[in-house]
Specification:
The complex is a heterodimer. Chain A is about 65% helix and about 0% strand. Chain A is built from 14 helices and no strands. Chain A has helices at about 10-20, 20-40, 40-45, 90-95, 105-115, 130-165, 165-180, 185-195, 200-225, 230-235, 240-275, 290, 295-300, 305-330. In chain A, helix 6 packs parallel to helix 9 and helix 6 packs antiparallel against helix 11 (about 240-275). Mean pLDDT of chain A is about 75; it is low at about 70-115. Chain B has helices at about 1-10, 15-30, 35-40, 45-55, 65-75, 90-125, 130-145, 145-160, 185-190, 195-230, 235-240, 245-280, 290-295, 300-330. Chain B has 14 helices and no strands. Chain B is mainly alpha-helical. The chains are: A mainly alpha, B mainly alpha. The interface of A and B includes residues 177, 178, 194, 266 and 278 of A.
Chain lengths: ~350, ~325
Amino acid sequence: MEKVAAKRGLWHDSWRRLRRNRNALIGLVIVLTVVATALAAPLVAPHDPLWGMVEDHDLPPFWWPGVTGGVPEGEKENDGERGLPEHQVVTEGLYETTEITFDAPSEEGERKAHHRYLFGTDDVGRDVFSRVIYGSRYSLLIGCISVAIGLFLGAPLGLAAGYWGGRLDSVIMRGMDILMAIPYVLLAILIVAVLGPGLTNSMIAIGVVQIPQFARVLRGSVLSTRGLEYIQASRALGASDLRIIGSHVLRNCLSPLIVQGSLTFASAILSAAALGFLGLGAQPPAPEWGAMLADGRKLLLTSPWAVTFPGVAILFFVLGFNLLGDGLRDALDVRMKS
Amino acid sequence: MRTRSYLAYRFLSIIPVLLVLSFVIFGIIEAIPGDPAQIMLGQHATPEALEQMRHSLGLDRPWTVRYVLFLGRLARGDLGHSILSGRSVLSEIAEKVPATLELSLVALLLAGVLGVLAGFLSAWRQNSLFDYFAMFGSLVGVSIPIYWLGFMLIILFSLNLGWLPTGGRLAATIEFQPLTNFYLLDALLSGNREVLADAIRHLVMPAFCLATVPMAIIARMTRSSMLEVLNQDYIRTARAKGVRTGRLLFLHAFKNASIPVVTVIGLQFGYLMGGAILTETVFSWPGIGRWLLDGILGRDFPVIAGGTLFVAAAFIMVNLLVDLLYLFLDPRIRY
């Protein structure tokens, strides 16, 4: 009798192995959670991410250590005289969107307000939770675009270098070496310096920085595939280079590319947040996780929660992709060269 | 003999890389928007003064001429003067490098010792609770934004517990005339215990912060390299022969497992230079990373050029040294 197992393809097999890998599953769940959050951000976020109530600035989350009864220690007495800077007055129309938070500054009202802000509020009264939720959209977007740039520019270079070899190989790979001679973060910063700070340019910078990594991974796996007998046979049968690459070589390179993609996604999110933190990426008031930490030093004393949660979000998302990438590497049985 | 010609080849092969790098950096500076003359003279400069300044900076000449002049100055070790501070870039680098180097070396030492130790123990007790804990920790270590970790450390140890200072290299109240700008070394040389203690207190958090990622990577590499070696036949033979566990682990296994670990430690240098920008920003550390970032933000062209070239050249040299270290570590490698 025929064995059924023979019908299982690479993907089916990989999925089975991935399911058995606990870390990878946790990673997958984290990634899917963040993706779902990003897509459903307007439904999940209770407040507007860009506008807050200045009256509610620097409120701690109700469960923050040291916060009793919803009112921060030492803030009770001078509640009434909490001076608000003139320029922070919010325009008329926006009161409507966040009207519920506009309670009288009585102690009862304060307590209610605390419970409205799961992660507290920042120095201008914006809800940190809502901002963190909306921030997932930026990270997802940055990850997708910059990995796409690295992949679509790096992979063809590595493919060409590995497949045709010779002089083309040395020219391409020396170029990659030079790109890699400048430390990763520094190169990204330099590119942003040329293009100007901003979200789009930081995605381009991170994408460019990743080109050599994709090129090297693809070149490596093309090299190990190129000499295989069935490819020689295919060539003997008169298949063109494009056909061989398209139907044989690329297929063999898919697994390493997927693993590299997942791990690169993680580092792209980290780098983008770092650029945002340095003031070179997404610009305030955008609720990008890194940019939310840009004023971190200033907020450390007054509202540490506003510094804490964006970082937790970055860690959570990046950890998810790293777990998934490691799991995929095992499941797809890829041996990566460091 | 062959080794010697390989060494010569490796040293000479740096030259074209540096040449292309200098061209790339020159191109980047050319492409950065903003007029240096305008930055130097300010908004209210007259057109004549601007023209004169452009002339004296050589900005009115074709880029090919400027590139050749740029190379000529580099060859003489002249990196120009900072537009913002007016000081020579080389002397600024000389002043900032010790701060970054001190931070990086302490971080690398920390990462190396703790990382190798954790990886070693993980491999020795594979699948133990410690192994799981260490490997999860190293996964968190490579996923954490280090500047955020720095903030968390400041909140905990400076603001809440009050144990450590929030930033800088030395308390403002301490009067100290540094000699080499390596504060630890200076304090030791002058025998000033107060300075030494304060410098260490300032160094703890930034160094730990900067060490996080390399530590995680080194731990993972040590573990996998040790496991690979421990599964080899000669280890089984040695064990059957009755070699004691300690001797087996250190002398037989670790020596062979250390080669990829050394590579990985060497490769962390590039990371440290990038990570230093973030760490120095969080902890107000007056080093080269922060200085370079300020240069980039302030469009200080000579600083960007000189700083980047310096960092990249140092990176290339360290990578070369790591390659050469193999020759001593593994006698089987002959080029």
